[in-house]
């Protein structure tokens, strides 16, 4: 289409878009228009007064055709000219960024590796580079996880394990900022996995008026292929926690095939399942359950064995890092009266080495029973009345205790325990709990995931028995499981006896999720629900006798449902609860030699940010050598300290961070960074045309494929920045004008012949 | 120890005349509700598990209109006794579980609810050991076990109850002969489980009141006027609190031997029953309930 346009209009559409139309005639424009008008009037008059065989209609047609021809001639006489801003030859630079990542070794549209296409198209001897070199000074950059200058694409190995397009654009722009830059050319498949938003790089490019011309390599879809999707695992998990993970398997070309899904930890198979593949591009979901029993940094590997004929086999394996913690999370259970729920909850988690439930039970007015406290002073004055004391726990369970027991500051403190400290709150049902406990409208009400209805005038009359089962969300939620290794079959839930409640809960708040529901006959009740609130999470378990699932005669003695449910609820409640020193790595797996930013959030015992802490990171290499790094306050965020770590060789690198303030230790933390080659490049390795098109359009550049890239030199010449001069291009000799003129004259002649007027 | 609240509560019981054995008669439903299905359909009130079955219920036994909502039931084990097997076989054939029933149960509940903030059922709740509904009541009281002669279904029922997490309190049996009968029966329920003395630093003795010594609580008519507090020979002189633990070290059974807590509860309002003993008995009882509901 573009070629036809160029043949008719002499130039490509781009030049018309970029240029301004003007008329270069030396005669005054008014004179020309006047002359044209006179000729037109004469012509019309001549046709109007002519007599003979012609009818008035014939004369109108002939006059129109003649006038049109005269108009074209007048237009040509006015010397139409295109004014273009053209880069000055050999005064400007063009940066050519070539993707050096492994995905470039995958086959392109012609079956050859994308890297070969790139090398051939932009190699030193190619026509394109020759054309570009005539006008521009070329600078080559390679990019994958990092970016750097290279003499040309021939010098690249195409073995980068990551593609960070944003950093590469930043690097090239900065490096060429001191020279007149006409534009940047990016050769890539567009499969960016650097983790940064493209806009980060586009804004400075737009500000500097640097257009980016993108050349997309490879096919948009790989066929046939199977790919394991992102695996969502918590960053940290308590040792022995049962995890429920949905694994997405997408494919092309294997419809109807049943493929195995294997989850491994250090070569040991944790669980094996299978999934049937649906239509092309439609992901199938395998839900697997497993527990992590070994403490320390674990690398969990999810894989689908390679199928025959697959285009890419590397994207059949995903690896995810999980920090399995052997620590004991401390939960405060405050119960307002003697209740069996407390007894059986304690028994259920007694064997759990990772959860410590400290009990404060009000057995009479102003009389408390303390159980499993760490020392004689713990909770000696009853429920904590300072943030420091309460925030020492990771979780808080509120039993049947009325809201009026607490001061308003304590209620606010409980809400802050969730939102500020990031702790987990579990509100149980009971005669003095939830709405019946007067929590409606309090600070705690805001935190709860459920809507508190009007309290029943007599809670005893609100007694309701419910058959309890999981909601669709609960079926895959770790906090609503009765078994750890296998899926909880519906028959297990069905076999459990009904539970009772005094608290009518029928709605969850917007954003909250119901995990267990109760069939109360005339309506569905919410039994277990959760929501995130601020930094923490809140759960409501609105029954009063879950212990029936342990004691009831219908429940076999060896049935572990009650124990597992409570272990799962409490572990989920305190999993991922932040400490005073909380570490994060920009990425948990890097290439050897690649730098990774580590941040530490440092908070005091009331979880307020500390900006004057002394924060030191000890980086232990796989060979045991230790390097000390001082982490500096980032200034732009309170309590956040950062440092860069560079794992120089493959293996697991340990970063121990210790923070001190005013001479006292605030806290410490540890994280691990895995250094080694990554297969990230092979995921979603089809060409991302949309990304490349957007990058080009938003910066004023253009998107090409290898077939269309030959127009790049000219496009750069007229759309690029740098040192430019104004260039005029005549338009009077456009073939379209000649053809139109010819057509109009020919049409007039033909009409006369047809009407017998010749 | 904090004797005054207990004393006050006991005195209040006496003053208020909560002498429950002679309350106004209330018609019985006559339904054998204790053997009703374990999961009755909604709306089928009354449910079976909260009231004694017809053969155990007293004709004048009042009932809470909404019993199922209560958290705690003072549940008394109704078991077979006398003559059949083991070391039993003398006196009070077949009815030893009824001793002090239901007055002791009701008076204990009055004091328990006054001393703690427990949501308790006000009346007695006797249940057969072979009733599946037994497992709905994790606290169980049994006395006069010196005459116990458990049947096989009762053994099965009690064993499953204890293994599931039930808590059994034994009271009011005296001397070695009765001990051997009880020991024989418990060995059938929990074979291989040892019975051990509970040291005074066991949490049972500090769950609510700090109890510093095990005292002998006499039956009515004893411990006053120069009469001894024990009943029988030399082997009844020393009161003991013993226990049976499960594999996890959790206390399943508390055994009060050579003492009669039930009589102290039952006769707390009697001016001839020494207040110091009933005070002590209530304190021990409260501790056992609070401990049994939290451990």
Commentary on this structure:
The complex is a heterodimer of chains A (about 750) and B (about 300). By secondary structure, chain A is of the alpha/beta class. Chain A has five domains: about 1-85 and about 725-755, no CATH class; about 90-210 and about 685-720, von Willebrand factor, type A domain (Rossmann fold); about 225-325, Immunoglobulin-like; about 330-575, 3-Layer(aba) Sandwich (Rossmann fold); about 580-675, Immunoglobulin-like (Sandwich). Helix content of chain A is about 25%, strand content about 30%. Chain A has a ten-stranded mixed β-sheet with strand order 18-17-16-19-20-25-24-23-21-22, sandwiched between helices. In chain A, strand 16, helix 9 and strand 17 (about 355-365) form a beta-alpha-beta unit. The mean pLDDT of chain A is about 90. Chain B has a single domain, classed as Rossmann fold (3-Layer(aba) Sandwich). Chain B has a seven-stranded mixed β-sheet. Chain B is globular. The chains are: A alpha/beta (about 750), B alpha/beta (about 300). At the A-B interface, helix 9, strand 17, strand 18 and helix 15 of A face helix 3 and helix 6 of B.
CATH architecture of the largest domain in chain A: 3-Layer(aba) Sandwich
Order of helices and strands of chain B: HEHEEHEHEEEHH
The total of beta strands of chain A comes to 35
Provide the spatial order of strands within the biggest beta sheet of chain A.
Answer: 18-17-16-19-20-25-24-23-21-22
- Termini Cα gap of chain A: 39 Å
Unreliable runs of chain B, pLDDT <50, ≥5 residues?
A: 15-50, 83-93
Structural class by secondary-structure content of chain B: alpha/beta
Radius of gyration of chain B: 18 Å
Total helical segments of chain A:
19
DSSP strand (E) fraction of chain B?
5-15%
Outline of chain B: globular
User: Mind summarizing the main beta sheet of chain B?
Assistant: 7 strands, mixed
Instruction: Supply the CATH architecture of chain B.
Output: 3-Layer(aba) Sandwich
Query: Given this structure, which CATH class of chain B is correct?
Result: Alpha Beta
Give me the CATH fold name of the largest domain in chain A.
Answer: Rossmann fold
Low-pLDDT sequence parts of chain A: none
Helix content of chain B: 25-40%
Major sheet attributes of chain A:
10 strands, mixed
Into how many domains do the coordinates of chain B divide?
1
């Amino acid at each position: 289409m573009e070629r036809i346009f160029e043949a008719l209009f002499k130039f490509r559409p781009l030049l018309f878009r970029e240029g301004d139309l003007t008329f270069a005639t030396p005669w005054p424009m008014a004179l020309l228009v006047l002359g044209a008008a006179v000729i037109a009037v004469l012509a019309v008059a001549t046709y109007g007064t002519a007599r003979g065989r012609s009818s008035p209609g014939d004369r109108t047609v002939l006059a129109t055709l003649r006038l049109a021809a005269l108009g074209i001639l007048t237009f040509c006489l006015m010397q139409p000219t295109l004014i273009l801003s053209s880069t000055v030859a050999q005064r400007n630079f063009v940066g050519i960024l070539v993707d050096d990542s492994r995905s470039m070794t995958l086959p392109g549209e012609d079956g050859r590796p994308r890297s070969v296409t790139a090398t051939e198209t932009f190699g030193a001897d190619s026509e394109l580079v020759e054309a570009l070199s005539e006008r521009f000074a070329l600078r080559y950059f390679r990019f994958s996880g990092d970016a750097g200058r290279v003499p040309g694409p021939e010098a690249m190995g195409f073995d980068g394990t990551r593609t960070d397009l944003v950093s590469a654009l930043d690097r090239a722009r900065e490096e060429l900022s001191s020279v007149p830059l006409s534009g940047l050319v990016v050769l890539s498949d567009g499969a960016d996995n650097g983790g940064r938003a493209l806009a980060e790089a586009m804004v400075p490019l737009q500000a500097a008026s640097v257009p980016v011309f993108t050349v997309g390599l490879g096919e948009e879809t790989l066929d046939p292929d199977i790919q394991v999707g992102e695996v969502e695992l918590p960053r940290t998990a308590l040792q022995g926690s049962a995890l429920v993970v949905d694994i997405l398997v997408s494919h092309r070309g294997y419809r109807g095939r049943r493929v195995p899904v294997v989850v491994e930890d250090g070569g040991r198979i944790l669980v094996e399942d299978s999934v049937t593949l649906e239509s092309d591009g439609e992901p199938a979901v395998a839900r697997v359950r497993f527990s992590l029993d070994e403490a320390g940094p674990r690398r969990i590997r999810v894989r689908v064995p390679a199928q025959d004929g697959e285009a890419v086999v590397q994207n059949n394996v995903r690896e995810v890092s999980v920090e399995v913690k052997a620590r004991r999370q401390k939960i405060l259970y405050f119960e307002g009266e003697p209740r069996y729920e407390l007894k059986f909850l304690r028994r259920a988690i007694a064997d759990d080495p990772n959860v410590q439930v400290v009990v404060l039970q009000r057995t009479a007015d102003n009389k408390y029973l303390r159980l499993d406290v760490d020392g004689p002073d713990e909770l000696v004055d009853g429920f904590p009345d300072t943030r420091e004391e309460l925030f020492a726990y990771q979780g808080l369970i509120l039993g049947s205790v009325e809201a009026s027991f607490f001061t308003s500051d304590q209620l606010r403190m409980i809400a802050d325990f969730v939102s500020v400290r990031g702790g987990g709150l579990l509100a149980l049902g009971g005669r003095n709990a939830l709405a019946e406990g007067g929590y409606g409208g309090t600070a705690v009400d805001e935190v709860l995931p459920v809507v508190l209805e009007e309290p029943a005038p007599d809670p005893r009359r609100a007694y309701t028995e419910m058959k309890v089962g999981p909601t669709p969300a609960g079926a895959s939620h770790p906090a609503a499981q009765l078994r750890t290794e296998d899926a909880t079959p519906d028959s297990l839930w069905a076999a459990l006896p009904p539970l009772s409640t005094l608290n009518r809960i029928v709605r969850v708040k917007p954003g909250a999720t119901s995990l267990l529901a109760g069939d109360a006959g005339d309506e569905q009740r919410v039994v277990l629900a959760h929501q995130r609130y601020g930094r923490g999470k809140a759960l409501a378990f609105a029954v009063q006798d879950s212990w029936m699932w342990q004691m009831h005669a219908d429940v076999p003695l060896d049935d572990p449902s009650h124990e597992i449910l409570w272990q799962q609820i409490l572990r989920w409640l305190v999993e991922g609860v932040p400490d005073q020193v909380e570490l994060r790595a920009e990425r948990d797996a890097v290439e050897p030699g690649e730098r990774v930013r580590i941040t530490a959030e440092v908070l005091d015992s009331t979880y307020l940010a500390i900006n004057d802490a002394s924060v030191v990171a000890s980086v232990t290499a796989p060979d045991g050598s230790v390097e000390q790094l001082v982490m500096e306050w980032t200034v732009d965020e309170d309590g956040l300290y950062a440092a860069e770590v560079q794992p120089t060789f493959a293996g697991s690198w340990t970063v121990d961070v210790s923070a001190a303030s005013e001479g006292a230790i605030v806290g410490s933390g540890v994280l691990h960074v895995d250094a080694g080659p990554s297969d990230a490049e092979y995921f979603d390795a089809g060409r991302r045309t949309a990304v490349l098109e957007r990058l080009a359009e938003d910066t004023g550049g253009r998107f090409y494929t290898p077939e269309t890239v030959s127009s790049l030199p000219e496009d750069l010449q007229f759309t690029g920045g740098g040192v430019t001069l104004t260039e005029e291009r005549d338009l009077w000799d456009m073939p379209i004008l000649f053809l139109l003129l010819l057509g109009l004259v020919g049409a007039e002649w033909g009409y006369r012949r047809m009407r017998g007027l010749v | 120890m904090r004797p005054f609240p207990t004393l006050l509560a006991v005195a209040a019981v006496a003053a208020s005349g909560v002498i429950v054995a002679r309350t106004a008669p209330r018609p019985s439903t006559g339904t054998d509700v204790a053997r009703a299905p374990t999961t009755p359909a909604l709306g089928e009130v009354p449910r079976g598990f909260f009231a004694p079955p017809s053969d155990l219920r007293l004709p004048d036994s009042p009932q809470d209109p909404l019993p199922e909502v209560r958290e705690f039931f003072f549940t008394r084990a109704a078991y077979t006794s006398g003559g059949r097997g083991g070391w039993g076989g003398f006196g009070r054939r077949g009815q030893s579980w009824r001793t002090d029933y239901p007055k002791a149960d009701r008076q204990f509940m009055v004091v328990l609810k006054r001393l703690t903030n427990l949501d308790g059922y006000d009346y007695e709740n006797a249940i057969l050991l072979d009733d599946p509904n037994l497992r709905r009541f994790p606290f169980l009281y049994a006395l006069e076990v010196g005459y116990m002669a458990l049947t096989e279904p009762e053994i099965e029922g009690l064993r499953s109850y204890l293994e599931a997490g039930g808590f059994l309190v034994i009271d009011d049996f005296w001397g070695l002969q009765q001990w051997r009968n009880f020991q024989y029966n418990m060995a059938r329920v929990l074979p291989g489980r040892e019975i051990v003395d509970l040291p005074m630093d066991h949490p049972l003795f500090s769950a609510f009141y700090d109890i510093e010594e095990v005292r002998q609580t006499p039956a009515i008519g004893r411990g006053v006027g120069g009469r001894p507090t024990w009943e029988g020979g030399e082997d009844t002189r020393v009161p003991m609190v013993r226990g049976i633990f499960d594999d996890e070290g959790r206390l399943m059974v508390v055994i009060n031997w050579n003492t009669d807590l039930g009589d102290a509860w039952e006769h707390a309002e009697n001016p001839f029953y020494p207040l110091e003993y009933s005070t002590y008995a209530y304190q021990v009882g409260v501790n056992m309930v609070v401990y049994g509901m939290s451990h």
